[in-house]
Specification:
binds flavin-adenine dinucleotide, 5-stranded parallel sheet, alpha/beta, single chain, globular
């Protein structure tokens, strides 16, 4: 009997976990199925580039996983039943019509990522644009292409996504009037060198920054702020963080208040030992006992950790536990400028930062490397191991069985 591993979501973390499991486990012993709504890999970290009019390299899963032993299943995950160990997937049949199918699993890796978070601000769902997903980025791309010179774009939120979106749009469309609204201070988590460079770049690109400005309503052509100020906005781009899909919350899995699956340091669910969660969908504690930030920077190592823990538990080896840590925050500022903010293990800014063209090049290498890593999950060849025991009964963090 093969051990059935089902991986839900083929973003940065699900695809990485599936590939790494296939490299670590013997093909005769496991059946690995990777489920994803779309047939190709979406480089989510480039959605601001897509929105600003750039074309991205197509990355079909069929090519990426050819010969790996990972079975691909295109379909939308509709539900997970962690008590029956089944997943319901709406998959297209031969006529293209979506039909519900049930997949059984022995081990589940939940990696459905996240989407935008409108935070319930009135008018946002109807009028704002988002770039957390490809359909969202394509919708914004079309809208931006239809804007004429002088029209206004307001980006709400000045985290990494808002900074990248506003600079990318301002660089691609210098004829537009681009502004950024931020609830607190602009770039206030960065080092003085980092925030200084950010301000200089925003000045150079002509982006107006509204600091200490909470947007409380979005209309078709404006946003309203907490003090009643109205800012003109032919287009509002909403980038105030990510929210997870509601599927996990509808299960008996232990989830956080925001619906992320609570996992231990091996990325295993604290309530259901045959379920692992990685990436944005997981709530895992990182250095300094702070939850890992929704990012590729910590998501991809979380996928390595989960895959290695699953492989170790199935093959009766000691479960590795490599703490996930941060090194830098890589921010693109258009195509020719960037900011690499070096950080402590728990993601606090150090004084040093790399800026300018070199930083843009560094960031580009990171993005290319992340996509390459998905298609090549283990650079150093590893020995495939034989499965010796089921995973479900092992206590948290403990090795199971003995090597064959
Ligand atoms: C514009 C932008 C820039 C970013 N820049 C950076 C950066 O520079 N550095 C960084 O570390 N992070 C960055 N991030 C964050 C990063 O993209 C996410 O944290 C990362 O993609 C999370 O990986 P994931 O595998 O958990 O989820 P995703 O990459 O979102 O993958 C989830 C996958 O699940 C699939 N899926 C979702 N729901 C279903 C369903 N119901 N059925 C089937 N399939 C489904 C999706 O199609 C997708 O393939 C950026 C994000 C954005 C939007």
């Amino acid at each position: 009997m093969q051990h059935r591993i089902v991986v839900l979501g083929a973003g940065y973390t699900g695809a990485t976990a599936a590939g790494r499991l296939a490299k670590r486990l013997h093909r005769e012993d496991v059946a690995i199925t990777l489920v994803n709504a779309e047939p190709d890999f979406v480089e989510r970290v480039r959605m601001h580039q897509l929105a600003a009019g750039q074309d991205l390299t197509p990355r079909p899963f069929g090519e990426m996983f050819e010969g790996t032993g990972v079975a691909l299943k295109q379909g939308k995950v509709a539900a997970v039943d962690v008590d029956r160990r089944t997943v319901t997937v709406a998959a297209p049949d031969a006529t293209g019509e979506a039909k519900d199918e049930e997949l059984g699993y022995d081990t589940l890796v939940y990696a459905l990522g996240s989407g935008w978070n409108d935070q319930g601000v009135p008018g946002t769902a109807e009028h704002a644009y988002e770039i957390a997903s490809r359909p969202g980025a394509l919708r914004l791309r079309e809208r931006l292409a239809g804007l004429t010179a002088g029209e206004s774009v307001v980006v709400v939120g000045a985290g990494l996504t808002g900074i990248e979106a506003s600079t990318e749009i301002a660089e691609a469309r210098p004829d537009l009037d681009v502004a950024l609204a931020v609830r607190g201070g602009f770039g206030d988590w960065l080092s003085p060198k980092g925030s200084g460079h950010l301000r200089k770049t925003f000045d150079r690109l002509g982006i107006t920054v509204h600091e200490h400005t909470a947007v409380t309503a979005v209309g078709a052509d404006r946003v309203t702020t907490a003090d009643g100020t109205v800012l003109p906005a032919a287009v509002t781009v909403w980038t105030t963080g990510f929210a997870v899909h509601p599927i996990a919350q509808a299960t008996t899995l232990e989830v956080s208040g925001t619906g992320r699956i609570v996992v231990d340091r091996t990325m295993r669910s604290v309530s259901h030992p045959d379920v692992y969660a990685v990436g944005d969908a997981a709530l895992a504690m990182g250095p300094g006992d702070k939850p890992l930030r929704m990012s590729c920077a910590s998501g991809v190592p979380s996928a390595w950790q989960a895959a290695d823990a699953i492989a170790a538990r199935l093959t009766g080896r000691k479960v590795p536990n490599v703490p996930v840590r941060y090194f830098n925050q890589c921010i693109s500022l258009g195509r020719k400028d960037g900011l690499i903010q070096y950080v402590t293990a728990d993601d606090r800014a150090k004084p040093a930062a790399l800026t300018g063209r070199l930083a843009a090049l560094y960031k580009e290498i990171i993005c290319k490397g992340a996509a390459w890593g998905v298609a090549h999950p283990t650079v150093v060849p590893v020995r495939r191991r034989r499965v010796v025991q089921e995973t479900a009964v092992a206590p948290e963090g403990a090795p199971v069985g003995t090597a064959a």
